[in-house]
Design a protein that fits this description.
The protein is α/β, with parallel strands linked by helices. The chain contains ten helices and ten strands. Helix 4 crosses helix 5, helix 5 crosses helix 6 and helix 6 runs parallel beside helix 7. The radius of gyration is 18 Å and the shape is globular. Bound molecules: adenosine-5'-triphosphate (ATP) and magnesium ion (MG). Adenosine-5'-triphosphate binds next to helix 2.
Amino acid sequence: MLKATETENMGHVRRTPLFPLVAKGLKYASGERALIDGLSLEIGETTRTVILGPNGAGKSLLLRLLHGLLEPDAGSITWGGEAMSGEVQARQALVFQRPTLLRRSALANLTFVLSHLPAAERTTRAHELLAAAHLEHIAATPARLLSGGEQQRLSLARALAREPDVLFLDEPSASIDPAATALIEKMIANAADDGTKIVLVTHDLGQARRLADEVVFLHQGRVTEVTPAPEFFSRPRTDPARSFVAGRLVL
Ligand SMILES: Nc1ncnc2c1ncn2[C@@H]1O[C@H](COP(=O)(O)OP(=O)(O)OP(=O)(O)O)[C@@H](O)[C@H]1O
Ligand SMILES: [Mg+2]
């Protein structure tokens, strides 16, 4: 299926480019504590970017800052040279570490974000998305009664329903069994193949190896390296990254 942007491009409605995504000198503090501490980063359009780092490194905060849900205390974020705007944010979706779903059925969580489509098409598309997430059997179940893993798959399906140009994912398979993890990874890989930029936070080194083109390593609120994935896993450049890849506690 063509993404909305491509359809519009064929109609010669040009959208502004979103890349490179550039963060410069980002700071975000809570009281005296610097949580994001002078972070700089540049991300291109075509790579699948995986953000790795120990608990508390600032990965979730960084996604929220990049997506414009939090304002940095200092520094700047630009998308294709422009500051974040409502239009740029609407072209992105973020799947949170803890799913946030509507208190409605699984199906209704999808039809809700498909409100731009005519009613019949909306329902058909919602069922297609449920099927792709292997959730057809629980279409009518209230989302809050779904298991943790089912909720994560529904959150991803809902994000994909919006056909984002940029998909941020925060630990999308944290409470998911191996078969469902494979399914989630396939959904993510398919979205990437369709031209969606993937920015994924994970703790799962296997998942990072399977999905990453490049790795951004975060430690204590800063980026310590941005490295092509094969090189990151064979020769991480910094001590914290070496410890992380070796499975040692990173302090
Ligand atoms: N709103 C907030 N106010 C104060 N401290 C916060 C806030 N949000 C996060 N923190 C702290 O900032 C640090 C970074 O948090 P963040 O959630 O980004 O970590 P993370 O890298 O995603 O960790 P994890 O791997 O455990 O998900 C943590 O020490 C956390 O306790
Ligand atoms: Mg986190």
